[in-house]
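In response to reviewer comment 3 from the previous cycle, which asked for concrete evidence that the modeling workflow produces usable outputs, we include below a single protein chain processed end to end. The sequence was submitted unchanged, and the resulting C-alpha cells are shown without manual editing.
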Amino acid sequence: MLAYALGLLLIAGALWILAMATGWGLPYVLLAQGLEWLKANPWESTMVAALLLALGLLLFVRPREGTDRAIRTSSNGGDVLISMDALQEIIARSATELKGVLQIQSSLRECESGLQITVSCQLEQGVLIPQTSADLQKKVKQDVELYTGITVTEVRVLVRRLDKARSTGRVR
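The workflow returned the following C-alpha cells.
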C-alpha cells in the first residue's frame, strides 16, 4: 500500500514539474493560494490536517485483503497457516475432477464456526444441475477438510454458465 501511495505522489510531482516546465503557472499559483489560506485560517487548517491524518492512518490500519490472507489451523507440532491461494487451488482441483464441471472460481469467507465457500462454475450442457451441484458441494467440503483440517460450514454453488464439452481430440 505504501508503494501505491508513493507511486501516486511521484506521478503527481512529475505532472506538476511538467506543467511548470511547459510554462503553465496554475499549479504554482494554486499551491501558493492554498498555503496562504491555510496560514490565514488556523482552525480550518487544523481540521484539514486531522482529516488527512485520519485518512492516512485508516489506509495503514485497515485489514489486508487479497491473496496475502491465510487461515490459521493447528496441528500437533504447532500452528499452520494456509493461504487463500492454496485453498482455492484445492477447491479448483477438487471441483474439476467431477464429470461435467468445466471451470470454477471460488471465494472464501472465514467465520467463527468454520469456512464458507462459494463456488462459481461453468458446467457442461446436459448435466443434471441439482445432482452435479450436490456432488460438487460434497466433494469440495470433503477435500478441503481432508487436506487442510479446516472445518467447512457451507459450500454454495453458483452455476454461471452451461457450455458444450470441449473436445479432447480423441475419437470415441
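The helical segments are 2-21, 26-40, 42-61, 84-96, 129-148. We consider this sufficient to address the reviewer's concern, and the full set will be provided in the supplementary archive.
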